[in-house]
Amino acid sequence: MYTKKVLKHFRKPYNYGKIRNPDGIGKVGNIVCGDVMWLYIKIGKNKIKEEIIKDAKFETFGCVAAIATSSVITNLAKGKTLNEAIKITKDEIVKSLGGLPPIKLHCSVLAVDALLEAIYDYLSKRKREIPQELKIQHQRIQKEKQLIEEKYKEWIEAEEMLQRQ
Amino acid sequence: MRKRIYLDYAATTPVDPKVLEKMFPYFSEKFGNTMSLHSFGREAKDSLEESRKVIAGLMGAEPEEVIFTGSATESNNLALKGIAFLNQEKGNHIIISPIEHPCIIETARFLETQGFEVAWLKVDKYGLVNPNDIKKLIKKNTILVSVMHANNEIGTVEPIEEIGKICKEKGVYFHTDATQSFGKIPIDVNKMNIDLLTANSHKMYGPKGAACLFIRKGIKISPILHGGGHESGLRSSTINIPAIVGFAEACRICKKVMKKESKRLVKLRNKLIKGVLEKIPNSHLNGHPEKRLPNNANFWFSFIEGESLVFELDSYRIAASTGSACSSEKLEPSHVLLAIGLEPKEAHGSLRLSLGRWTTEKEINIVLDVLPEIITRLRKISPFKRNL
Known about the structure:
The structure holds two protein chains of two kinds.
Chain A: H1 4-11, E1 24-29, E2 36-45, E3 51-61, H2 64-77, H3 82-86, H4 90-96, H5 105-125, H6 132-151, H7 153-164
Antiparallel strand pairs in A: 1-2, 2-3
Helix pairs in contact in A: 1-2, 2-5, 4-5, 5-6
Chain B: E1 5-6, H1 17-23, H2 25-28, H3 39-58, E2 66-69, H4 72-86, E3 93-96, H5 102-113, E4 117-120, H6 131-137, E5 142-146, H7 160-170, E6 173-177, E7 196-200, E8 211-215, H8 241-279, E9 283-285, E10 296-301, H9 306-315, E11 318-319, H10 335-339, H11 344-347, E12 350-354, H12 361-381
Parallel strand pairs in B: 1-11, 3-4, 3-5, 5-6, 6-7
Antiparallel strand pairs in B: 2-8, 7-8, 9-10, 10-12
Helix pairs in contact in B: 1-8, 3-8, 4-5, 6-7, 8-12, 9-12
C-alpha cells in the first residue's frame, strides 16, 4: 500500500523533534482519524534579505503516512521564502512521496495545515500583515483544531506544562 | 537474516503440513463432485461425510447437525438471516453483543433494514457480556441471541454456557461465533446449550475456504444460497472437498494437541504480557487478564499510533495487527476497543499479538527486546512524550 519512499521517510524521518525558542509553531490535528502534528519553524534571511524558513522540525502522533508527510514538508519548507512556503501544496508532498493510498491523502493536508499554522503564528506574533489566503485557511484550521484539542486536552496540557518547566 | 516472526495467528494461520498432505489427493486424484453417482462422486461424498463426523465430534455435535460453508462470514450470515427469515411469525427481535465481528454486526444492521429490531448488549471493561443483561432484554418476540465465544481482537472468552442456559429457559435460539476459539479451547454444544455455532478452518491450521455452521437438530433455518440443494438444501454450491478434508484433518490435530498446546501458549502469552507491561511505561493490557484465549495478547500504548507500530514491527520482520483508526478502511477506531471503554486516542495506540503453533519462546524474547525500542522511537517523534 505504501511506496518505498513513504516507508523510507517513515523509518528515517528528517527533522523530527523540537526547535528551542521557535519563531512559529503550528499545532494541528485531524478530526477524522485523530492524528496530531506539531510543526516548529525558525526564520532567517537569504542573501537578498528576504525572510526564509531557516529550520523546520515536527512532532507527530500518527500513522506511517502522517510521519512521512511531516518529514517531507519540513524538508520542502526549509530554505523557502514565506510566500513560497505558503504555496506548498498537498500534491507536491504526495508527488515527492511517489504517491499515497487514497485513504491517506488527508495526512498530506494535515502537513500543509501544520506549516500554514506555523507561518501564521510567526506573522501574527510579530503583528505583521497576514495574506488574505492564509487568514482564510487559518480560520478553517482553527475550527477543526478546537475539536481535536478537546479530545487530547489532558495529554496536551501535560506536555505544555513540561515544556514550561 | 533472522526468520520472520508471525504473531498474527488470529488473522489467519499457516496450513499445518500434515493437513496439506491430506488435502493433496483431493485436487487431481479424488476430485469428484459429491453429487455424482459414479465412483469419483461416491469417493468424494464419502470423504465429505467422514470429514463432517470429525468436525462435529470436536464440538460434541451429531454429524447431521453440521453443514459446510465457504467462510465464517457466510456461516454467520446464514445463522442470522436463516433464523430471522424463518421465524418472522414468532418474532422480529434479535439480541447481539457490541463486540461481534463485522460479519455479525453488519448482518444485524442489514436485518434492521428488513423490519427486524436489534437490541445491542453492553460489555464491561474486559469485554465481558453480563448474562443477566440478556435475561432482561429478552422479550416475547425475541427469536435469537448471538454472542461470540471468544473475541477476535482482545481475546476475551464470553460466559456462553450461562448465556446458553438463559436462552434455553426462555425458549430463544442461541448462536455463537466460535471462529477464534474452535480448536483452541473446549467446546461442547450440548453442555453449553448452543443452538447454532460458527466454526472455521483457517484460524486453526486448516485451509481458507472451509467453514461450517452447527444447527441443532430440529431447528429450521432458511438458506441464503439457493440452487442444487447441497448440504440438505441449506447451502447450495459444489462441495469444496480438498478444503473440507483439510478442515477435518486440522480438527483431528487440534483435538490431539489442544490441552498441551493451550498450556504452552498460556505460558508464552503470560510471559509476553508481563514483559511488555514491565518494560514499557504507559502500556496497558486490553481484555480480561484470565478469561482470554490462550494465544491472545492485546495492548494499548499511550502517545503513539498503532499503524506506525505495526509497520515498525514489520521492518523488524515481526507481524502484528492494530485496531487503530488509521489502519481501518473507515478511519474509525476498533468498535471492540470503544465498546470496552477506551477513548479514541487510546484505541489509536493498540496492538494485537496473537500466538500460535509455531511460536517459540525465543521469538517472544525477540519481541520483548524489539518492542520497547520501537515504542521509544515512535514516542520521540510524537508530541506527547511524557515519561520517556
